[in-house]
């Protein structure tokens, strides 16, 4: 057999996805500003944003769309069509209520283009509205601060506990109390994962579910001193703002997404470390920091110049 004329080291055509392990759940995803954002939590059957509908995302029955910019919504038609094609059940799409009509028109157009009755369910959401997936699991929308209608979403574990004053009563006693109409349990909500999509600084970083979520997934797009005006113009976070926000956050883990290719993940990490110190960096993970992540400048040579982040 003839040997190939040259050895292929690696193909830049193969897109690599990140996988972060948080014990009872994972995040799988890809997020680069202006290019694509999609973050999945497989154990909760939820995906945040569609990106360009990468293959792994198709398994999520629920998708929470943060806003209408193309790098977050592009894959919606492909996502729904592929699931239908593969015999999966219709997906449920939570989205800012202001986008419901236009996304519905888009999907109806796709049905005509494809001549296929792709099913879907759109759930229009408003800030602080809770979508109850199950008795023990809900998704709450939170107001974010970006261009146009935008929402973040928090996965909430809902637990019911016996009221403290009733601890020690026997089973039959509790049954009697319940029969007589006494509410014997109280509800606690535990925010597990908060995903903010794109946002600049604002009240979202004071929302209790965002502050207390075990894992917070937030953007921080710009890191260079001369990118402050880009951050302001696009309503994105600059590292200056992010460093000011961080002390108020109680999250066990913070995952940074949507870093501009103009900076690159490794350089962004170094800059953030200078702002916040090494101890704070222990809980901060950059989604795209996996083996082979390029320093700023490397990737720009491999493709067209980066669009300013949307
Ligand atoms: Zn955006």
UniProtKB/TrEMBL annotation:
Tree of life domain: Bacteria
Matching Pfam families: Lactamase_B_2
Residue span, Metallo-beta-lactamase domain: 61-258
Protein name (database record): MBL fold metallo-hydrolase
């Amino acid at each position: 057999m003839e040997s190939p004329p040259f050895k292929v080291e690696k193909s830049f055509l193969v897109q690599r996805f990140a996988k972060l392990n948080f014990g009872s759940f994972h995040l799988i995803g890809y997020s680069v500003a202006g290019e694509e954002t999609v973050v999945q939590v497989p154990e909760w059957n939820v995906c945040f944003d569609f990106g360009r509908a990468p293959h792994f995302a198709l398994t999520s029955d629920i998708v929470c769309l943060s806003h209408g910019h193309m790098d977050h919504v592009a894959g919606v038609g492909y996502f729904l069509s592929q699931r239908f094609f593969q015999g999966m059940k219709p997906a449920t799409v939570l989205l800012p209520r202001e986008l419901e009509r236009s996304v519905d028109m888009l999907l109806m157009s796709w049905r005509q283009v494809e001549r296929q009755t792709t099913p879907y369910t759109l759930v229009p959401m408003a800030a602080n509205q809770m979508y109850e997936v199950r008795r023990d699991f809900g998704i709450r929308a939170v107001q974010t601060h970006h261009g146009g209608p935008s929402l973040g979403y928090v996965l909430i574990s809902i637990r019911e506990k016996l009221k403290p004053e009733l601890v020690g009563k026997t089973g039959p006693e509790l049954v009697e109390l319940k029969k007589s109409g006494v509410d014997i349990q109280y509800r606690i909500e535990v925010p597990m994962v908060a995903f903010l999509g794109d946002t600049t600084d604002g009240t979202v970083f004071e929302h209790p579910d965002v502050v207390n979520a075990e894992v917070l997934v937030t953007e921080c797009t710009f890191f260079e001193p001369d990118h402050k005006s880009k951050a302001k113009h696009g309503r994105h976070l600059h590292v200056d703002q992010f460093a000011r926000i961080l002390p108020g956050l109680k999250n066990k883990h913070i995952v940074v997404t949507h870093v501009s290719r103009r900076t690159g993940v490794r350089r962004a990490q170094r800059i953030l470390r200078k702002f916040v110190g090494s101890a704070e960096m222990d809980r901060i993970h950059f989604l795209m920091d996996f083996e082979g992540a390029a320093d700023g400048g490397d990737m720009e040579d491999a493709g067209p110049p980066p669009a300013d982040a949307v």
